[in-house]
Amino acid sequence: MKPVHTGYATVNGLKMYYEIHGNEDGTPLVLIHGGGSTIPSNWGTLLPLLAGHHKVIAMELQAHGRSGDRDAPESFEQDADDVATLLKDLKTDKADLIGFSNGGTTALQLAIRHPERVRKIVVISANYKREGLIPGFFEGLQQATLKDMPQPLQEAYLEVHPDTGGLRIMFEKDRQRMLQFKDMADDQLRAIQAPALVMGADRDVVRPEYILKMGRLIPHAHAVILPGTHGAFIGEVCTAEKGSPLPGIAVALIEDFLGK
Predict the structure, then answer these.
(1) Any bridge partners for residue 122, and if so which?
(2) Binning pLDDT at 50, 70 and 90, where does residue 190 land?
């Protein structure tokens, strides 16, 4: 899908790539991708379904895709600050957020750190506790190398940024962030005042019971579990199933939530 506008913004010393899609007079809707992703690889299926009713703002975070890097590790807090600064630069006072996987954790941090920028949040397949991930996740990641990164994600990165060195840096920074993942306190989620829709899959990387727990902890939240694996119900490039009705179902649930 061709964007209405593309550009770069300097946010907290980082050159960040962003795109604007859809109805520029619509309610701003921010899409925050997961680890190792680009805008097309994460949102290629959902973006056209959302652009009809919203001014969709999508960006590529530190070290990802067409964005630059900084001489510092990645963190969910820094990503949240970067997105908040981008919204300020784009003169967007308040927006709805959809975050997938690591991007969902970033969306939680935005709601905690920059509540003035957030109207509603949709948190998809995101984690807030180490024990919320499936058994063996961290052990497998400890041994992982670039060759273990899903090939569709490698190809998607190189398509927009043909630099194998940058690809390796992104992989290592994503890997280190997850290996050093620190639990969020339950009280941090209880402090979120933005209405939230927490979504996950029944065979997700995040255990379904933790998706439901997040839905109970955030005061104004609903939770839903859909069938499939990590990213399948949004048509993410690694798990998309041709002809699946699930992305359409997910968008209908999201639109119903955002419209209330």
Answers:
(1) 98, 197
(2) very high
pLDDT at res. 23: 87
CB of 73 within 8 A of CB of 40?
Answer: no
207 and 133 in contact (C-beta within 8 Å)? Answer: yes
Q: Are 161 and 185 in contact (CB under 8 A)?
A: no
Dihedral pair phi/psi, residue 96, rounded to 5°: -85, 150
The CATH number of the domain covering residues in 5-259:
3.40.50.1820
Nearest to 179 by CA among 35, 32, 31, 14: 35
**Domain residue spans of the chain:** 5-259
pTM equals 0.98
pLDDT higher than threshold 80 for residue 177: yes
